[in-house]
Amino acid sequence: MRKIFRNNAQGIVDALTKIIAKKGRGTRILEKINLANPKWGARDRNLVHSATYEILRWKSYYRFLSTAEDATDEAEKPWKLLGVWLVLNEVEIPEWDEFKNLDVALIKAKQKEKVTPEISKSIPLWLYERGKAELSKEWNIELDALNIEAKLILRVNRIVTSPKKLQEDLMTLFQIETHLIKGYEDALILNQRKNLRKNPLYLKGSFEIQDANSQKIAPFTQAKPGMKIIDGCAGAGGKTLHLASLMRNKGEIIALDVEIDKLKELSRRARRNKVKAIKNTWVPDPQYKESLTNWADRVLIDAPCSGLGTLKRNPELKWRLTEERISEVIELQRAILLEQSKWVKAGGKLIYVTCSILPSENQNQIAWFLEQEEGAAFVLEKEEMLFSHQTQFDGFYAARLIRKVVNNIPKTV
Ligand SMILES: C[S@@+](CC[C@H](N)C(=O)[O-])C[C@H]1O[C@@H](n2cnc3c(N)ncnc32)[C@H](O)[C@@H]1O
Fold first, then answer.
1. CATH of range 214-410; options 3.40.50.620, 3.30.565.10, 2.40.50.140, 3.40.50.150
2. Which helix (H) or strand (E) holds 230?
3. Mean per-residue pLDDT for 218-226?
4. Predicted confidence band of residue 28 (pLDDT cuts 50, 70, 90)
5. Which of 1, 147, 287, 412 falls 20 to 30 Å from 183 in CA-CA distance?
6. Which of 157, 289, 299, 275 lies closest to 227, judged by CA?
7. How many whole angstroms separate alpha carbon 255 and alpha carbon 251?
8. How high is the pLDDT of residue 412?
């Protein structure tokens, strides 16, 4: 039987406490916990990472199996959840105080009980019902797919290297095995999870870490060398950098966001990626926004959203999301569509994207936009729904709209 060391268990409990109670970001908290434990090897880090995420993913099911809900002391709850994880993963139960009341027989008996779908799929009841109302039968299959841990995927930066060359370099220089994914031109999957952020090939910009379906978005914009492109919700630039790579560094990209810290991170990543096409990163003021009217060949709106398509990688999201937050992002998405669509020139294209799988953030938003005065200037060229159960990667929605040219006179809003 496998064993768990005290400092690994403590790491998992600390991570859960900070992520659940203090609402921290999972990846950042785990990075800090790794830094605080410099003696940990890859095995320790992988164990703490995978157990923390598995417990977050299955939290309500684990609660059902354990007596975590009965714990009066908040500090006890993560230990109870960890206890369930130990039992389900056949790890020897250590003789520590925290596990003295752990009832292995009860957990095993409860596993045989029939439970309601929101428990078996481990999701808040309101969210289960909302997804069911919006997606009908597809919701249950999608939830199953979103409950499977995400693979680690690289996006090859073609400004620096090629997929074949990177694959060879990773293997010969670092004995890291990867494989290509059919239908995803720039993607490599790692056969084994590894932290690559200190790898020399990463540091010299040969690749970024980016989900495979997220890598479908930049090609969907039909970006070409020499174009003028606005990435209107650029964040830290996952898709901006990919656009620059597809444009072979020729052309002009303006990257906008409301959060300056994300744009600073984008600039750092652009330097590492040897990207020169990003001309401006900006938290735009009204005057600057005005100057963008009818400017762009492409405007990409990678809109703020519920993030429900990314539960594989961010299971903590489902416990934080609220109905109010979904309503807020729907309003924000509409405001951004109305504002940023003005920046597309006649014959140019507007690309609206979310990493949500809910029609209310996706197809319904585009239908709504096309009925507005601003939207009447566009026609829908293509829309795509990428579900996790069909692709095994994150859930994404993308729509591409063309601004009409009327009698050779650009139709402006
Ligand atoms: C889905 S994230 C973008 C992810 C990014 N494109 C990437 O590929 O890494 C949405 C972004 O929209 C930004 N945002 C929110 N409200 C905005 C607004 N009114 N205008 C522009 N960006 C906004 C958020 O700060 C967030 O970075």
1. 3.40.50.150
2. strand 228-231
3. 97
4. confident
5. 147
6. 299
7. 13
8. 52
| Nearest-angstrom CA–CA distance, 64 and 98 | 19
Nearest 5 degrees, angle CA 374-CA 380-CA 385? 120
Ligand 1 pocket test, pick from 27, 233, 313, 353 with the greatest ligand atom count within 8 Å of Cβ, gives: 233
Token pair for 97:
């105080």
3-state SS class at 298: strand
CA angle 83–84–86, rounded 5-degree value: 65
Largest CA distance in the chain: 80
Q: Where are the domains of the chain?
A: 6-115, 153-209, 214-410
CATH classification number, 153-209, choose in 3.40.640.10, 3.90.1150.10, 3.30.70.1170, 3.40.50.2000: 3.30.70.1170
Q: Which amino acid is it at 50?
A: S
Amino acid at 370: L
Cβ–Cβ under 8 Å, residues 282 and 254? yes
Both structure tokens of 81: 């959840």
Verify whether ligand 1 is closer than 6 Å to residue 230 (CB atom).
no
Tokens linked to 26: 């999972």
Q: Kindly report the CA angle at 32 between 26 and 34, in degrees rounded to 5?
A: 100
Q: Is 336 in the pocket of ligand 1 (CB under 6 A)?
A: yes
